[in-house]
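Students often ask what a holo structure prediction actually looks like on paper. The answer is less mysterious than it sounds. You provide the chain, you provide the ligand, and the output is a string of discrete structure tokens encoding the 3D arrangement of the protein together with flavin-adenine dinucleotide.
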Amino acid sequence: MKQRIGVYICHCGGNISDYVDVEMVREAVAHEKGVAIAKTTVFACADSNQKEMVQDIKDNQLDAVVVASCSPKLHEVTFRAVVERAGLNKYNYVHANIREQVSWPHSDNKAGATQKAIQIVRAAIAKVRLSEAIEPLEVDTTQAVLVIGAGIAGMKAAIALSKMGVKVYLVEREHFIGGRIAQWDVLCLTNETGKELVSRLYNEIVSNKNITLYTGAQLIECKGSMGNFAVKLKLNPRYVKDICNDRASLRKAIDVCPVEVPDEFNFGITKRKAIYHNFPGEYPQAAVIDMNSCTRCGLCAKVCDKIDLDMKVEDLELNVGSILVATGFDPYTPAEGEFGYKVIDNVVTLSQFKRLLAFSEPGKLQWKGKPVKNIAYIYCVGSRQVEGENKYCSRYCCTATINTALKANEKFPELNHFHFTRGIRTYGKQEQLYHNASKSGHVFLQSYEDDPSRVERKGDKTIVRINDILTNRKELEVEADLVVLVIGMVPRSNNSVADILKLPRGRDSFFNEIHMKLRPVETVIDGITIAGTCQGPKNVVESINSALSAAIKSYSFVGKDKLMVEPVVAEVDPNLCKWCDKCTRACPFDAIFKNEQGVAHVNDTVCKGCGMCLPVCPTNAIQLKTFTDNEIESMIDVLANEL
Amino acid sequence: MNVTKNARILVFSTVKISDPAIDMAGLLKLHYSPKVYTISVPCSSAVKPRWILRALAKGFDGVFIAADGTDCPYGESCTEKTGEIVKKTHQLMKESNIDPVRLKMAAICSVCSESFIKHINSFNDTLLKLKTTE
Ligand SMILES: Cc1cc2nc3c(=O)[nH]c(=O)nc-3n(C[C@H](O)[C@H](O)[C@H](O)COP(=O)(O)OP(=O)(O)OC[C@H]3O[C@@H](n4cnc5c(N)ncnc54)[C@H](O)[C@@H]3O)c2cc1C
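The corresponding structure tokens follow.
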């Protein structure tokens, strides 16, 4: 029990003291049990006051401190550091919020505000009186990082980490790295293609001895916690030995393969065989057999001796100190009939259109054998939905579409472009592209969200209509040879890593950061960071920015051989526990287990301090440090009992 | 000191999600009753029924759980688990002849300041009505 408590009540200039009688608060709390000194201060956070606090703590042998000021989000860390500088433990500090939760919302009621401030400071004193000194937990770290996903974000993060001197395992689920950008050919805002970017990064990766790349690899298990994760990977073989340089026999093997399936690289507009080669821009440059569609007929093996249908799936165990997740996104798949998708045969997605442009010979563009001249782009398909769940803007799409349309004319000069938009969002430097398109004759139309464009079939023609708000809701129509649906981004449909790593997701189902502004690449799972589009829609520049931040953050977990972790964890009283298993089931992080004594035990380094185990315990055997029954109930008692 | 008649409400709010919303209500100078007090916890699924019962026994008119809802940084099971706590506590309240309306829960996201004010005002009204009929 703390007996020499220092209490500081802040004016915050006048932000608090204009509405709360701080002197009255001071007088009311000065004689609370355990209070040794109580002072008011104009700015508690000012350097001079911090110095005075340190001096007070030393001169008066204070054993705990309360500061009543702004929200703890702003200065709890500041004052914890002050008490540490004076030799106290930082958990013997309690912060009372009398600005955001008192003086500001109750600026209409000064008496009420003052009374509430008194109660809040008394409750903080009650809590700090029971506070215990707890020490950060120290854990050993493995100086290696697992990067999951070798798209642009994962590749850039891996390279950045390797340059900091850390061992990196870069794990890609597909047999080729590069992620989506390998599929896009032209990319805004520079003239570089996806292919060029991926080639450059792949060369850097394979020549870097700090990076080990695994393709066809999947995370199947993860144990441990920050500093020491033990992960298990499943490595799927290519069924083609080494790198087969005998192109002729490989070509023959592909030719004789009787299985044809839609080629996912081209979003199903072309077919491939069960054995197939990489596209330019996909690495490594090596063939692979897709065992999900292969019938094991053996024809390929007869013409190419590098093929081995008996290769086995292997498991691999690795130890890492941090995990950086960069698993990317899926392009939205429109529902059947959404703007004519899959019902009208000249309706495609932007992804399919980009592939079509990439593999078509220059000259005249064709779709299903018919010439294409008029292209209608329908924006915000699967983004900014009025009815559906995807309320967000997908960010990349306005710019990528305009850029694709502009570039298309370099290869196919006769194309006309009609953009059916919901308002163009080419933010920042990308605005220049919009300007260029407008100048070069692209037609931009705009509809309201409650009155979307319509795609209709009229005889053998496809008509797109809009009530265009830029011409005072005039109904306009375009006869389109090709309708391109500008699809948004959605989370990957196969997101098994989320379940294995227990990564929380946000309302939009993308992975969730702790705080959008202040901790944008960290997750609540200590030691696991997120980067790129697995976190939400981003273009390449934004994906790389977040990848580099995540790399630095992951490095901060493994850069030293020891790590301090927050000690606010749950604790089981072994005398009260009757082992019923309810806490282990409630714990989302598998932090609780049955120990040798047959009672529940919390693994300190895995526990995140959420407290979900507390209310489920039938014998009330679990306490969360700094939120114990004694602490919470003492606050309740004080708050209920107004002076 | 004249503090207008208001119900005394204890809010269990969460450090990462609903605390920021309640703080922002202050920043926006959205007014509510000064008889509303907050105790912060890491997650709304961590609130023990005994804390709620204690608050009611010691003189609070009502307890409001500002739940993390689907935004909970600790995972999607939070909504269901907080719901369970409320259900269990309502049961315990009934057994002790305490009107279950005195415990209310609503999801308050980190920017849901206005929704917090709306909930707290309507809860205040409910509790005042309850007091006059009692
Ligand atoms: C049609 C279209 C056009 C675009 N055009 C542009 C443009 O012009 N300019 C621009 O800046 N941006 C553009 N973008 C956006 C760009 O594609 C993204 O910003 C970029 O691809 C994001 O990279 P990423 O690494 O986050 O994700 P991805 O590219 O999706 O890469 C993720 C990688 O992780 C792998 N992976 C997934 N799950 C696992 C797992 N469980 N284990 C291991 N590996 C896994 C995937 O196979 C993939 O290789 C466009 C997007 C679309 C849809």
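Chain A touches chain B through 56 residues (CB under 8 Å).
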